[in-house]
Amino acid sequence: MLGVAALIVVLSVMNGFQKEVRDRMLSVLSHVELSSFSGSIDNWRQLAAYARKNSEVLAAAPYINAQAMLTRDDVVRGALIRGVDPEMEPTVSDIAGHLPSGRITDLVEGEFGIVLGLELARSLGVSLGDKVTMLAPQGNVTPAGVVPRLKQFRVVALFESGHYEFDSTLALIHIGDAQRMFRIEGPTGVRLKLQDALRAPIVAADLARGLDSGVLVRDWSRQNRTYFAAVKTEKRMMFIILTLIVAVAAFNLVSTLVMTVTEKQSDIAILRTLGASPRSVMAVFIVQGALIGVIGTLAGVGLGLLLAHNLDVIVPLIERAFGVQFLPKDIYFLNSLPSDPRWSDISPIAIISLVLSLVATLYPSWRASRTRPAEALRYD
């Protein structure tokens, strides 16, 4: 029971963390991106119209991706600059819902406003209304040589996605200002939002089949496949490690049944003299062990689901009782332990537990069926 419950709770927490991180990523990332190998895309409207023909595509918006340096006094930080259309961007991402200060619609073409990630703003030492200087990697050629291209931008909003990688490196500007700053004729790609983000690889493959070879189609799972592959591997290894707890419990079942067989030697011998066959004796101990396994597994599943669905209540009670904090928000960006129990995990756990319990009964049952009545009753 305890082994099954522990396995369910741990895997549910890992699922919860994965879902939480994925949702925070998707608040900034697009589900699918269509970009060009050659740079800008002139016919982005036709590309967006083609993508919207797919029934699973909800919205499309253009974007420009570039890299630049942001400076404030003597502080310099590298940043990923994303030029967006402030009217269309909220249709493909949830960035507008993660702005503790300002609004994305405050990005007006020609006014050179910028939206900074909260961690990036802290590292630069700026707040709402301050100005930062952007240095583009492309320079201006003058008689005096190559002069860096730079422009002052005013901070109009701050966003906090809860994912440090984006909060510390990403900055948004108007797509028109990005075209002038980086001397790009048009958007570098189109961002798509889908009905179901988990079907992004399938939708991306469908779109890629109908597009030219010069268009690169990437979904969010492909962009972050290293991270999600690591999480998947960690979850698999944790499943194997914690299954050993169930295996230890099954071994204890073997020892318990062996001791029972030893203790009941005379009783088994009497049953044999009354006409019980070795097969029926073996069946008695198989049923006993299997019943223990079934009760333990069902109780473990019930306890595991109870704990997994109430971690948001149980963990705060433990924190208040002992005066500790398991998840400091300034470190993990979470103030509660996420949990996401899934039957795709619970079913294998229950099946493995039942199989191990059944296998554990075979040797003791076989040993009981081999009892010889004459030898067992000789000294009784």
Task: Give your account of this protein's structure.
The chain is of the alpha+beta class and 380 residues long. Helices cover 51% and strands 21% of the residues. The chain contains 15 helices and nine strands. Strands 2-3-7-4-6-5 form a six-stranded mixed barrel. Strand 5 and strand 6 form a beta hairpin. It is elongated and about 115 Å long. It starts with a helix and ends with a helix. The mean pLDDT is 84.
What order do the strands of the largest sheet run in, or round the barrel if closed? 2-3-7-4-6-5
Give the overall silhouette.
Answer: elongated
Order of helices and strands: HEHEEEHEEHEHEHEHHHHHHHHH
In what range is the share of β-strand residues? 15-25%
Point out poorly predicted stretches. none
Mean pLDDT: 84
How many extended strands?
Answer: 9
Q: Share of helix among residues?
A: 40-55%
The DSSP helix count reads 15
Please outline what is shown here.
By secondary structure, the chain is of the alpha+beta class. The chain has 15 helices and 9 strands.
